[in-house]
UniProtKB/TrEMBL annotation:
Molecular function GO labels: ATP binding; CMP kinase activity; dCMP kinase activity
Family: Belongs to the cytidylate kinase family. Type 1 subfamily.
InterPro entries: Cytidylate_kin (IPR003136), Cytidylate_kinase_dom (IPR011994), P-loop_NTPase (IPR027417)
Binding locations of ATP: G9, P10, A11, G12, A13, G14, K15, S16, T17
Recorded name of the encoding gene: cmk
Gene3D superfamilies: P-loop containing nucleotide triphosphate hydrolases (3.40.50.300)
Protein's recorded name: Cytidylate kinase
Signal peptide: none
One GO term (biological process): nucleobase-containing small molecule interconversion
Organism of origin: Clostridium acetireducens DSM 10703
Length: 217
């Protein structure tokens, strides 16, 4: 049976942590689509390509060969996972992700992967665009303060120096751009189940989703 799971939600809602655990439980390939937009941003910044330079952006994306190995993103044979999570990338990614041509190329790639494999994907437009027909859709949410707290702890634990207020600021700005852009903005698909994880542990969220899926399988 072809099963696919879509998880959407704002920055720092816990999507990737939850998706990784569920991918093991249901034996699905985990595709972190945010990593793909982050990789485009990384290479665009490295090559001084601005979000309004559509021609150069398209050329750049065509030169990137992206694949996921053990939940890490490999671009042109180099593991870029540690670089793409840095605050500098977080600060810029929503501007590149709002470009329709960037979205078209990445959505295309994501759809191709989902045709070939059983996947769990997380992002902003998975239940609404990429996996529109997915049998299981979830929308993870939490208060901006809780999300900023989690992201702050995550980065500090990785040895990356950050200020809580900067993280909160970035999350609020990113949420605004992601929900207000013209192409594929973030919103809850009408058939997605919303889970507010503000007062739930990771285990509680995983259990909730696990039981919902199992009861329908
Ligand atoms: O992990 P975090 O919640 O910080 O965000 P992410 O999933 O890594 O996504 C980074 C950014 O990529 C988002 O803020 C969006 O601007 C963009 N994105 C998107 O537009 N569409 C997706 N399907 C996934 C990410």
């Amino acid at each position: 049976m072809k099963i696919s799971i879509a998880i959407d939600g704002p920055a720092g809602a816990g999507k990737s942590t939850i998706a990784k655990i569920l991918s093991d439980k249901f034996n699905l390939m985990y595709i972190n689509t945010g990593f793909m937009y982050r990789a485009v941003t990384l290479f665009a910044l490295k090559n001084n390509v601005q979000p309004n330079d559509i021609e150069s952006l398209c050329k750049l994306i065509n030169s990137l060969d992206m694949k996921f190995i053990n939940n890490r993103l490999i671009v042109n044979d180099v593991d870029v996972t540690n670089e793409i999570i840095l605050p500098e990338i977080s600060k810029n990614v929503s501007n590149y992700a709002a470009v329709p041509e960037v979205r078209e190329k990445l959505v295309d790639l994501q759809k191709k992967i989902s045709k070939k494999y059983n996947v769990i994907m997380d992002g902003r437009d998975i239940g609404t665009v990429v996996l529109k027909d997915a049998p299981f859709k979830f929308y993870l949410n939490a208060s901006p303060e809780e999300r900023a707290k989690r992201r702050f702890n995550e980065l500090i634990n990785k040895g990356i120096k950050v200020e809580y207020n900067n993280i909160l600021d970035d999350i609020i700005k990113r949420d605004y751009i992601d929900t207000h852009r013209k192409t594929n903005p973030l919103y809850k698909a009408s058939d997605a189940i919303e889970i507010d994880s503000s007062n739930l542990t990771i285990e509680q969220v995983v259990n909730k989703i696990y039981h919902i899926i199992n009861s329908k399988l």
